[in-house]
Specification:
Blueprint (H helix, E strand, L loop, with lengths): L2 E8 L6 E9 L2 E5 L4 E3 L10 E2 L6 E2 L5 E2 L9 H14 L2 H14 L4 H14 L10 H24 L6 H13 L3 H16 L4 E7 L4 H10 L5 H9 L3 E7 L1 H13 L3 E6 L5 H18 L7 E2 L8
Antiparallel strand pairs: 1-2, 1-7, 3-4, 3-11, 5-6, 8-9, 8-10
């Protein structure tokens, strides 16, 4: 479920009392192929941006000046009534478009502008897909076109890190707007980037004289429980941890060496399971692009199985 903390705040432009809400936590039950997450209960996307009822200023809740006191001490029904009224007048997609236009004028990075347009496209997928008007579908595509335009520039400038997930997202947006050759090109780039990633295993060769302190450090900073630790000790030299980046593996080497333990690192021959899931995602969306399929695809958040 999603927990919401409602508040009233003052608009930073005109000072008008505005309903805002902060999301405490949420439970994700599925994810779309462009990373749009769906939550149980209230959708956090509804509360990501607030709009002033007087001057129509759109911003994040933390961009408004919070009033003192808790909403429970005021009139909560007024907050929700005003929130629902403003949502009807200023839908999610419209809010994110206005936000993107504002932050661009204020000199925001292409990454932030692109993400705002991406979120606007997500807003057009709220509710039943079967009941959507053609105008909604067109607006979603327009937002996706803007998103890919700005995210491409952000990637070229280095503001958007060249991770496989980011390259894939640009490819997926190209697929959604029907640019299938470009989509396939980016999917191939994402695959190459992913296959270049290297991961390492940490081998414990000797726990050293302070093995009890080593145990405390290892168990406090990993998923290893007492039974697993005992198995490692009985099998020395033995793999202790895996799926580590080189920097993380080196951190472990430095930490345990300071405790007089003897450890070494070895390059892993396979990608970690979570990276294999990303590779599978790329392959599946590439297959859709080859078929000239631009439809939205929905995935199981936990297993990344597309249906």
């Amino acid at each position: 479920m999603t927990t919401i903390s409602p508040r009233f705040a003052a608009c930073r432009k005109c000072g008008t009392r505005t309903p805002v809400a902060f999301v405490g936590s949420t439970t994700i039950f599925r994810m779309d192929s462009d990373y749009r997450q769906w939550s149980m209960g209230y959708d956090p996307l509804y509360f990501a941006l607030s709009v002033c009822p007087k001057c129509n200023f759109v911003g994040r809740p933390d961009e408004f000046e919070s009033e003192q006191g808790d909403i429970k001490e005021d009139h909560p029904h007024q907050h929700w009534e005003e929130t629902e009224r403003l949502l009807k007048e200023y839908p999610i997609s419209r809010r994110f478009i206005s936000y993107a236009e504002r932050i661009e004028m204020e000199g925001a990075s292409e990454k932030d502008i692109g993400q705002a347009y991406l979120h606007a496209s997500w807003g057009e997928r709220l509710g039943s897909l079967k009941d959507r008007m053609k105008e909604s579908v067109k607006l979603e595509r327009k937002c996706q076109q803007n998103a890919v335009k700005y995210l491409f520039v952000a990637l070229q400038k280095g503001a958007l890190p060249p991770f496989a997930e980011n390259i894939y997202l640009i490819g997926e947006l190209h697929r959604r707007i029907g640019n299938f050759p470009e989509a396939i090109e980016y999917f191939d780039q994402a695959t190459k980037q992913l296959e270049k990633e290297k991961y390492y295993i940490l081998i414990l060769e000797d726990a050293g004289p302070h093995y009890d302190v080593v145990e405390v450090k290892v168990r406090a900073n990993s998923s290893i429980d007492k039974a697993e630790w005992q198995r490692v000790l009985k099998s020395i030299p033995c793999k202790m941890l895996g799926d580590l980046t080189f920097d993380k593996a080196q951190e472990w080497v430095n930490l345990l060496s300071d405790l007089k333990a003897s450890v070494s690192i070895k390059e892993q021959t396979e990608l970690p399971n979570d990276r294999k899931e990303v590779l599978s995602l790329i392959d599946k969306m590439k297959a859709f692009a080859i078929q000239d399929d631009s439809e939205n695809k929905t995935a199981d958040e936990k297993k990344k199985i597309f249906i």
